[in-house]
Specification:
globular, nine-stranded mixed β-sheet, alpha/beta
């Protein structure tokens, strides 16, 4: 097959679609920004989809709540059920959760929430570098990642805390392999509370998938660590060392850790095509 064709959806109020498109292209796909009110027939021609970050519909009611009811999401349901991958990043993750596409144990039923951050001595919007620990390489966001190896990616949100009122659901998701990312320490060990876990998310969850692994909702922004120059020089861990050793313009233009998340989307599509 040729280069996978991926659509980055733009809802009113989103603001991360252009940098997400550039990162998806750097990961090896062709990519277009697709308007939320575009024709369904055109959207169906894409091999995969990314819902980027921002503030869809100004986060009225709650983050992602209005966009999740948009007709374009109905098309995403159909494409996901056909096996195509969908990654939601930050506000995109909120949309997938509000639509019931993730965790999707009962596809279409809202089973989780992304609640307001819980942090010591402050509340509201918060941004910081975090280290994600991939649980496995079986999802469309982790296919190119090594399980257990920390991936530094920044978060930036006010409502990103994975929670549920359904007894036993989180344990079920871990058992099913649907928790694809947890927050951890720079050395790959489990999070030691705040700030390793920046929002109080249950069981340090940073990203989860549907049972098939082709729909992933993740709060951190991989497009913001897709190139070496985006990493801070004082970043701890192995990637921080790589950033400090990067020499000149060419070194700083090298691939960053977040690019592997979007490369996973490309790899997932390519491998799905081989299996077909």
């Amino acid at each position: 097959m040729g280069r996978p064709k991926i659509a980055v959806l733009r809802f009113p109020g989103m603001n991360c679609e252009e940098e997400t498109r550039r990162a998806v292209m750097a990961a090896g796909a062709s990519c277009d920004i697709f308007m939320w009110n575009g024709p369904k027939e055109s959207l169906e021609t894409y091999d995969g989809y990314v819902l980027p970050g921002g503030f869809s519909y100004q986060d009225r009611v709650r983050a992602g709540g209005i966009a999740a009811k948009d007709h374009v999401v109905d098309c995403l349901f159909e494409q996901a059920e056909a096996g195509k991958p969908v990654i939601g990043i930050c506000n995109g993750a909120q949309i997938l959760i509000e639509a019931g596409m993730v965790p999707g144990v009962e596809f279409g039923r809202v089973q989780m929430g992304l609640a307001r951050n819980v942090m010591p001595d402050r509340d509201g919007y918060y941004t910081r570098w975090t280290h994600l620990i991939p649980a496995h390489d079986n999802s469309c966001a982790t296919a190119s990642l090594a399980p257990g190896v920390p991936v530094p990616i920044p978060t930036a949100h006010a409502e990103g805390r994975f929670v549920t009122t359904q007894d036993g659901l989180i344990e079920e998701l871990f058992a099913n392999g649907q928790v694809v990312f947890t927050y951890g320490a720079p050395d790959g060990s489990p999070a030691r509370g705040f700030p390793d876990n920046p929002n109080g998310s249950a069981r340090d969850i940073a990203g989860m998938s549907n049972p098939a692994g082709n729909v992933v909702a993740m709060m951190p922004h991989p497009e913001r660590s897709s190139w070496m120059f985006q990493l801070p020089a004082n970043l701890p861990g192995e990637w921080g060392m790589r950033r400090r050793e990067a020499a000149g313009v060419d070194g700083l233009k090298g691939a960053g850790p977040g690019l592997s998340v979007l490369a996973s989307l490309v790899s997932f599509i390519e491998n799905s095509g081989k299996e077909a």
